[in-house]
């Protein structure tokens, strides 16, 4: 029996173990997940040591230390210090020492991912679309039509619940949930709820709901205020309902 057949059979068994989660959490699923995490972590550690750490960092230090220049020594010392400072994240007392290395790691990783997505996916696709674009041809007209439709769908979409039900039922449902929570949990540490109203109509709907709900007297509201945050359009009007202790 060849190695391909054996590996395919093992992959089939592990796939079935993962699919066993469909009937609920079970030891077989956990075994497959732990095995996957362990093998992935081990492979990542081996690849990092074999292809990065040893040939790029430790090998020049240990085997070629007498032949490297000052510039090369500095270029090797900086990643070594940053790598060792990451070990400080293992202890809460010294974790702050590894913040700079973590920031460099996250920043470089994000920049690499964004650059790869732009140069490897978005820019080539956009260039290919522009090369095919010709308003006089059927393909160009189809591309222009789909582009306009996608733009309208992206910027002109209205939440479905507002389209079907309107803002009043949505506000009633949200405020009803908050009031019921306070009544059912009198010892809760949550003592303030914020409702965001994007228009004056939404604000009046919220205030009307709060005014006509007789159960709010049991909550002993101490204040109900509204304020407009100076931000980009649309302005967000915040309606605050505070619950008094006792």
Provide tags for this entry.
single chain; 246 residues; mainly alpha; Ribosomal Protein S8, Chain: A, domain 1; 3 domains
Task: Give the helix/strand layout.
Layout: H1 3-19, H2 27-63, H3 70-86, H4 99-132, H5 138-155, H6 160-164, H7 167-184, E1 192-197, H8 200-212, E2 221-228, E3 237-243
Antiparallel strand pairs: 1-3, 2-3
General description of the model:
The protein is mostly helical and about 250 residues long. It folds into three domains: about 5-70; about 100-155; about 160-245, Ribosomal Protein S8, Chain: A, domain 1 (2-Layer Sandwich). Helices cover about 65% and strands about 10% of the residues. It contains eight helices and three strands. α1 (about 5-20) packs across α2 (about 25-65), α2 packs antiparallel against α3 and α7 (about 165-185) crosses α8.
């Amino acid at each position: 029996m060849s190695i391909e057949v054996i590996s395919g059979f093992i992959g089939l068994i592990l796939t079935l173990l993962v699919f066993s989660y469909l009937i609920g959490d079970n030891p077989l699923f956990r075994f497959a997940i732990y095995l996957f995490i362990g093998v992935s972590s081990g492979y990542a550690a081996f690849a990092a040591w074999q292809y990065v750490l040893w040939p790029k960092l430790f090998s020049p230090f240990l085997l070629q230390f007498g032949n490297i220049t000052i510039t090369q020594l500095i270029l090797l010392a900086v990643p070594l210090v940053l790598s060792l400072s990451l070990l400080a994240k293992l202890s809460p007392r010294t974790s702050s020492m590894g913040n700079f290395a973590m920031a460099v790691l996250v920043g470089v990783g994000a920049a690499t991912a964004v650059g790869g997505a732009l140069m490897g996916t978005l820019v080539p696709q956009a260039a290919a679309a522009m090369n095919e674009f010709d308003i006089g041809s059927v393909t160009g007209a189809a591309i222009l039509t789909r582009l306009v439709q996608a733009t309208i769908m992206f910027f002109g979409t209205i939440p479905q619940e507002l389209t079907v039900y309107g803002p009043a039922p949505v506000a009633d449902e949200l405020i009803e949930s908050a009031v019921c929570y306070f009544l059912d949990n009198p010892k809760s540490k949550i003592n303030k709820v914020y409702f965001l109203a994007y228009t004056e109509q939404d604000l009046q709907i919220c205030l009307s709901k709060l005014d006509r709900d007789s159960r709010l007297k049991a909550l002993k509201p101490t204040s109900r205020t509204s304020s407009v945050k100076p931000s980009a359009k649309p302005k967000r009007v915040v309606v605050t309902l505070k619950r008094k202790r006792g």
